[in-house]
Amino acid sequence: MKRIIFLLLIFSAALMAQEEQKSIELPDFVITGSQSIQIPKAEKVKPELIPIISKDFLLPNYSPELMPLLIESVPVRHIPGISADDYYIGRLNVGLGLYTYPIGELNLSAPFDNYLFGLDIWGKNIKEYTDYAYFNTSGVSLKNDFFVSPNSDFLPGTSVGLGGLYERFSYRYFGAATPDSLSENDLMNFNFSVRNKFIRKFNFDFDFNGRQFRHNNFDLNEKLFSGKAEMSVNFSLFSLGGGASIKRQMTDHTNINFRENFYSFTGFIKLYSLSDLIVTGGITYSSDEDNSSLYPFVALNYKIDEGLSAYAEYKPRVEFIDLYSLYKQNPYLKNNFIGNIFLKNKSAFKAGINYGITDILTAGVWTEYKASDNYYYFLDNEQTGFYNLFTENDVKTYSGGVELILKSQIPGYLNLKAGYYKIKNSAGMIIPFQPEIRFDATYMKEITNNFNIVLSYRFMKGAYTDLTNTDILPDYHNLSFKIEYKMFDNLYFWTDFQNILNKSNFVYPNYREKPFDLIGGATYRW
């Protein structure tokens, strides 16, 4: 009887999605094409198969550094540990909602001794809620992971990865003066890597990545080829290592061709000889066609007690911000430039304290200061809803935060992150669209063997919309709740209540995020 009642609830949600129409928003425009490959340990490598808890049931983490400027309508959720007994090799997830209609994802994974094959296919459509608001995406990714046996005589424990991705996405500039303007884009990515962290005396990591991003509205085409090599030789009292990173950017726009090379080289020494203290020091050289920099760095990690440690680092560095990365942060960026940003963090200091008890509890507090040149931000000062890119020198970042992760069967899984950020230019004005306060919370609980819940909340405050700091965005509140019910061993039904408070949330003026959305769906695993 319980199962019948729950089924009626799920399909009622789906039926409501067909009948009810309100207003919507453009969701997060963050597309990733990176590969994450696990390094095998001495025991037999376990394949990365499909967990019982669906990928949609749990969302990814966010960095305590600069948060992406376009925020997803659902608060961030974090994946707790999943038992190896819960793995499947395939998953099909489908759903529909008031505004999210339809959504689908297929995941396949097949292990063969020292080889793992993975295939993902997905699609998502956000219906028009307010006038012209629209988002649609679909894509496919393929990855192949090869593992050398830990017992091999040649490079034991080495992993080789080969993968690719294609994704297309389209949306409208519904907050602009011409809201019917449609943006159609696609992304292709290829990755090859060879890594080994198993050999105690010698570790290496080689990676090659090729990516093409096309923004069809502006007839813009960016190709980026990047290579990375890192190696370290480890002794009982110290390690010596170094790395090199090379990027080749080729950007074409109508009759304009832009070419840029970026190089970065690092050398370091890590000392273990001091009791309870690890010291790392080195130097990094970075250069593009017009700029170069040479920065030393040092990092300290001190074990205070069992599970308790403190760290401090001084690490100035250069970041090469390519065109796709800029559009990923702000999809409403107008093409007022061709090229990239050579962001110089000429001074960067970070310190913190971490506490952990095995895998049950981890907690940390941190603070950071940075002084940056060529710091970039966005303003729609010429055309409403179409953003231009600006840069400033001598920008100061003051930030600090706390994080707590609790993993336990009885109280459940809890993740809390809170951060305070003050980012000012040389005149003391706050950089636009950088929230001063950012908070994320996720609580997950397995109520019974058949019933899971996730409660998530995101809050942001203090984001100005101009450099004069006269206008500020309303506070951002987003509360979401998801339930998942196991009908049979391989079949799950779920309902996702997004933006329960139905708040009018904005990351950019006039671009309202999705109001309350109710999504119902099913997941089948095999």
From TrEMBL:
Cellular component annotations (GO), alphabetically ordered: cell outer membrane
Signal peptide: 1-17
Location(s), subcellular: Cell outer membrane
Predominant place of localization: membrane
Keyword Transmembrane helix appears in the UniProt entry: no
InterPro entries from the UniProt entry: Beta-barrel_TonB_sf (IPR036942)
Assigned keywords, A-Z: Cell outer membrane, Membrane, Signal
Protein name, entry field: TonB-dependent receptor
Organism field: Melioribacter roseus (strain DSM 23840 / JCM 17771 / VKM B-2668 / P3M-2)
